[in-house]
Amino acid sequence: xxxxxxxxxxxxxxxxxxxxxxxxxxxxxxxxxxxxxxxxxxxxxxxxxxxxxxxxxxxxxxxxxxxxxxxxxxxxxxxxxxxxxxxxxxxxxxxxxxxxxxxxxxxxxxxxxxxxxxxxxxxxxxxxxxxxxxxxxxxxxxxxxxxxxxxxxxxxxxxxxxxxxxxxxxxxxxxxxxxxxxxxxxxxxxxxxxxxxxxxxxxxxxxxxxxxxxxxxxxxxxxxxxxxxxxxxxxxxxxxxxxxxxxxxxxxxxxxxxxxxxxxxxxxxxxxxxxxxxxxxxxxxxxxxxxxxxxxxxxxxxxxxxxxxxxxxxxxxxxxxxxxxxxxxxxxxxxxxxxxxxxxxxxxxxxxxxxxxxxxxxxxxxxxxxxxxxxxxxxxxxxxxxxxxxxxxxxxxxxxxxxxxxxxxxxxxxxxxxxxxxxxxxxxxxxxxxxxxxxxxxxxxxxxxxxxxxxxxxxxxxxxxxxxxxxxxxxxx
Length: 477
Ligand code: PHE
Description:
Layout: H1 12-23, H2 26-38, H3 42-70, H4 74-81, H5 86-121, H6 130-138, H7 141-160, H8 163-190, H9 196-203, H10 208-212, H11 214-228, H12 235-241, H13 249-277, H14 291-300, H15 302-341, H16 351-371, H17 387-391, H18 402-429, H19 432-440, H20 449-476
Helix pairs in contact: 1-8, 1-12, 1-13, 1-15, 2-11, 2-13, 3-4, 3-11, 3-12, 3-13, 3-18, 3-19, 3-20, 4-5, 5-7, 5-15, 5-16, 5-18, 6-14, 7-8, 7-15, 7-16, 8-13, 8-15, 9-13, 11-20, 12-15, 14-15, 15-16, 18-20
Bound molecules: phenylalanine.
């Protein structure tokens, strides 16, 4: 039920590009390779695939269907199912806000690398020593804030344009571009001597890591899967609410899950073989995207190293933008829906004003993330301290830097909680037919009755419980 004022996607292709754009992000290009690197390669991939099929796909379909059925953003959609469900929608929007407080900072950092490699291609080395650049950059508060600001501004410009004219147009260009850039970089890496070890690590049968620490691999893969698919937030519900009744929801959900997984695997096929070829560690952890890859591009050397570096960070930038846009849209849609209901905000429900105000608040709160040197604190040369340093407590997963603090609130608690509740509501309160009927509103016969019923009743609630448990123990354990 798209009303004219809320806006809607003009084409199913546009919807798909936007939904895939949301799913494909830093999670795929950064999180997936480094977590795979630290969790046994193939074993991680195997668990990830099983979870994406039996847990992720059903939640994806559930969110899209809930949005389209109610024609509302996240809060409105849950409220439309009954007043007592509304709080779950609120969790989604609040989680979106917290995610953006760090995601936009990271997006700004990526943008710095894009511009840096562009300049370097024309002979202006602005990175200095690649091995130490990252450390200097993150403690330079002024620079971090400026790039954060520019990234946030770019997001606002797209969202203010509207659903079809802003979000859809951006993604229709950005997503195919991202795919081709990734393909070029992948082929280049494949031609490097020594890359083969990386593929072997990813694809040759090896379940030993599962025998050694089953829970760790499952927990990490589960958390990664659900973050990567943009679940448990306002996003897929909101995008679903902009989709025409004609479209086949099951097919769309499947396409999004498959594409997201494919891009994550392709990212692994860039980062891990590149590390293998240049003798760098797979398990470097979060530093992989920024510092390790920079060393890789420096080792490629000269113009070609800078050129491949530019292409790589450009595609990471496009991925980050299309994800952050979707989250900011989820938050914006909440205010737009509210305004329209109250007859405020004119034709578009005050879209521009809503997204500007949201962005300003995100920028102010997110500055904490930009200024603590990712946890190094004042002693490490940054402008402010991490939460643990401020409180004078021993640093834990949630308190070692402001980024992790906001990550804990969103990815750690609110998102998995929301998704678990959704799975339980669909399986046991609203019943699976609520979703399947919405799928059939397009006039297609749904093919997934049996499969989705099984998922909603059994695998999805259990899977989400594992995610929630895994997240809480990893932040507080
Ligand atoms: N899925 C995105 C990624 O992989 C992140 C994201 C999470 C976007 C939640 C929207 C909602 O980076």
